[in-house]
Amino acid sequence: MIEARRLSKRIADKQILREISFTMQEGRMYGIIGPNGVGKSTLLQLLTGMEPPTAGDVLLRDRVVGAYKRKDLAKWVAVLQQGGLPAVGFTVREVVTMGRFPYQNWLGEETSGSGEVVDDALGSMGLLELQHRRIDQLSGGERQRVALAKVMAQEPELLLLDEPTTYLDIGYQVQLLDTVKKWQRERGLTVIAVLHDLNLAAHYCDELLVLHDGGIEAYGPPSEVIRPELIQTVFGARAIVLPHPDTGVPQILLQSGVQPGELGCRGE
Ligand SMILES: Nc1ncnc2c1ncn2[C@@H]1O[C@H](COP(=O)(O)OP(=O)(O)OP(=O)(O)O)[C@@H](O)[C@H]1O
Asked: 251 C-alpha vs ligand 1 centroid, how far in Å?
């Protein structure tokens, strides 16, 4: 279980998060949503212990996150961050193999079959053909898939994703989130993802935590959270919310202040 207790974070005289508390259960997929600059990435960093809180605590499996040794934490917690890949020089396979670091001894040796785990990770992200290519010779979307394959190779039990669909076209956005969802279901993985696309967030996440103005504006299943009033309050955008015809989860159609005719569309 993940627990935030009266968590606050101040950065350079700015109060980003103010005494927020919540719990998250293992084996579920959570989305963190909210406007630009509200503190979503900051919250992710507090949850993994990469950043210390100004006040309050994060508990992972009943233990304060700062009390874990980094390498012990890396055996079950993986983070996919923005721009988290090494810059140049390494091949796709070498980078994905770096995900096995927590399982290696000080000589870089691993006893269990890391080759198979790396092959699986490369295969599930469609990277086998690119495995010997240097990562500086990849597109932004291909790099993002390498970054996900690297965290898969880590075989985490808790996976934190910071805007994982950045750079990906809609086909790969769905492929990536389908893959993550499949792991969550098959391996009991816990996933916490910062997502900007509310439709994807509602589609894939069991629960959504909405940050607004330093606090939690809403927290619950998408059907309870995704409402036009909330979108207006949090994002200042007008939206129509409709159930997805296949799944019934709420999906958003944005409304602009401009009339359809002015947008060049055919009106009634
Ligand atoms: N090192 C820093 N120094 C000063 N301010 C910072 C620093 N890191 C983050 N901030 C500020 O903290 C706030 C929260 O940043 P954070 O990256 O967590 O927001 P976010 O919700 O993830 O934003 P986005 O949706 O734009 O990615 C922002 O106002 C940001 O400018």
From this structure: 27
